[in-house]
Amino acid sequence: MQATDTPFSDDFMLLQEAVIEAGNMALARFERGDTKAWEKTPGHPVTNADLEANRIIKRHLTGNRPDYGWLSEETALSRDTHLSDVVWCVDPIDGTRAFMGGEPYWAIAGALVKDGRAVCGVVHAPALGETYAAERGKGAWLNGQRLLTSSCDEETGCKMIASESMLTHPAWRVPWPEMKLARPKPNATLLRMCWVATGEWDATLALWRKSDWDLAAGTVIVEEAGGVASTHLGESFRFNRSEPAQRSLIAAGKRLHPLLVERVKGVRLPDPNWTVRPYDRANDTEQTKMADTPDTKQLLHLVIGGELKDVRGIEFEDLSKLDFVGAFPSYKAAYDAWKNAAQRTVDHAEMRYFILHAHRLLDPETGSHHHV
Asked: Magnesium among the record's keywords (predicted)?
């Protein structure tokens, strides 16, 4: 496929074959308008093509590599996956909304993750006729042409793929400079990252939670093109942790990346892995905030959300419009409810959900304080 002095690995070739096979199926459905969808969870549509692509890729990859773990948007996570050091990380269709709407900006993607790091990745956008691919030490490629990120070294005038409402939000203490923004921007995060890898766009930014399958393949492609992909704090991504997600995304060339980190690092976003599940390897997480152990008594955990006045703070715009998700007796139950609610805030950085732990209750009749 690509011209490189070092042959691509068998794992890479296997991944590419699987992704392209799934892409051929999805393109056929797309062209005949077979894009009927339903919601797997509120705000998260899925189509038959998503599920069929998942089956094709899983059959091809796990059939040939039965010892590797499997992590996919359309497949339930398992304990075995979390405890594997080598895992396929797959997004059967990134950009399902574009696929449903007859727009070409969607892709089939997969990566191989070893010890938390993506070592090869393929992003195939069949409706665009584009196949992006990379393997550690062997470069990044688009349809056989070598990719390099841009050398842009200033924010003013840079070409940015990001939510315009986020960049123009009045909460920024220092307004963003004039930039060329992608209008419209592709819904598929992996395509945004790949466009940065080509050098045609200088950066992409998302100040909200992203799943591992949204990032893994794009990360190795951006980095092999000479760029950097990280959280908004500049943290390198570590995939296949207890919760397969990252707090945010910045992907850019090496000169622009630190400037963007400096601008946005004050935004407070939680690491999804501050909660460790019982079977997780705790030393693989950044921090353990609260052990997920059986509760000895029924405590009160409230899940609430609303629009923030400042994306860097916790002051709500309008308390009368708070979304009360529910009250839960355990942290785990509250966390699962928070996770489902937080996934509805994509592209709305000012809309945030929180878990409120009640440590002391006041009885207004007696004035007594009850510690829990």
From this structure: yes
Which tokens is 346 given?
A: 């994509």
Residue ranges of domains in the chain: 1-269, 294-371
Bridge partners of 291, per DSSP, are 276
Residues 143-169 as b/e (b if ≥16 CB within 10 A, e otherwise) read eeeebebbebeebeebbbbbbbebbeb
Q: Which amino acid is at 230?
A: S
Q: What tokens does 310 get?
A: 């400042």
The correct answer on CATH 3.30.479.10 for the domain covering 1-269 is no
Query: Is 262 assigned a ligand-binding role in the annotation?
Result: no
Residue in the structure block whose two tokens are 């010890």: 115
Q: 221 labelled as ligand-binding?
A: no
| Alpha helix positions (H), the chain | 10-31, 48-64, 79-82, 96-100, 164-167, 189-198, 212-224, 257-264, 331-342
Residues 254, 103: contact at Cβ < 8 Å? Answer: no
Q: For residue 328, what is the enclosing H or E element?
A: strand 323-328
d(CA 250, CA 228): 8
Q: Rounded to whole angstroms, how far apart are CA atoms 358 and 360? A: 6
- 347 annotated binding-site participant: no
Residue 91 labelled as part of a binding site: yes
Within 95-226, strands assigned E span 107-114, 117-125, 130-135, 140-142, 145-146, 159-161, 180-181, 203-206, 210-211
Higher pLDDT, 309 or 123: 123
CB 239 within 8 A of CB 117: yes
Beta bridge partners of 326: 303
CATH number of 294-371: 3.30.70.2400
In single-letter form, the type of residue at position 94 comes to D
Task: Output b/e per residue, 316-337; b: 16+ Cβ within 10 A.
Answer: beeeeeeeebeebebbbebbeb
Contact of 269 with 302, CB cutoff 8 Å: no
Per-chain mean pLDDT for the chain: 85
What average pLDDT does range 156-168 have in this prediction? 95
- pLDDT tens for residues 10-42? 999 999 999 999 999 999 999 999 988 887 766
Classify the phi-psi angles of 300: left when phi > 0, otherwise alpha if psi is within -120 to 50, otherwise beta.
Answer: beta
Within 8 A by CB and 6+ apart from 176, the residues are 155, 167, 168, 263
Specify the pTM.
Answer: 0.76
